[in-house]
Design brief:
By secondary structure, this protein is an all-alpha fold. The protein is built from nine helices and no strands.
Length: 190
């Protein structure tokens, strides 16, 4: 690969992304799963996986970085600063569901904290601001601590993913169910 070639494009980029998606899926549920399971899920040989990521640490670090990138992309597309706070919250929940495998990988295992940039905030300001905006608009419960609401959102996401993976809920119903459950607990009353 030349120094000017984008590693995220072409066949090489597709293979890299396939490996990272497979790693997020496999390692989110079993951090100690063999790399052969990741290679199998990515539909590549183990030697191919090792050409891209020489060891487990390199794969974990790259998968964490890709997780943050995928979440950032989805949240940017959700446009949390636009429209009413309630509409924005619904889009944000749906965006998280869209990339839920990446969310579970990145934040489901405390061991991934070693990959977290020093300036990263586990409670992103935009989420706290969105909750405060909803409170200011009178649609979200003014008595709920914004940090608490963000933690409830994370808990619902993880629980929802567990339900989908256990076959107790179809994937397509996850976002509406999470939104309904979240709103049932945080909407302003009266």
């Amino acid at each position: 690969m030349t120094s000017t070639e984008n590693p995220r494009r072409g066949a090489r980029g597709r293979t890299r992304r396939a490996i990272l998606r497979a790693a997020a899926s496999v390692l989110a549920h079993d951090r100690n799963a063999p790399l052969s399971a990741v290679a199998e899920r990515a539909e590549v040989g183990r030697s191919t996986l090792h050409r891209y990521f020489p060891d487990r640490g390199a794969l974990l670090a790259a998968t964490f970085e890709e997780s943050l990138s995928e979440m950032g992309r989805a949240l940017e597309e959700a446009r949390p600063e636009e429209g009413s706070a309630l509409e924005a919250m619904r889009r944000v929940v749906s965006a998280h569901v869209e990339v839920i495998e990446w969310v579970v990988f990145a934040f489901g295992d405390p061991a991934n904290e070693v990959y977290m940039p020093d300036d990263a905030d586990p409670e992103p300001d935009f989420l706290l601001d969105l909750v405060r905006r909803g409170q200011d608009e009178g649609v979200l419960d003014p008595g709920s601590d914004p940090s608490w609401v963000v933690h409830v959102l994370w808990a619902l996401l993880f629980t929802g993913m567990e339900q989908v993976e256990a076959g107790r809920m179809p994937r397509h119903s996850l976002a509406p169910t999470l939104i309904r459950t979240l709103e049932g607990g945080i909407l302003a009353r009266g």
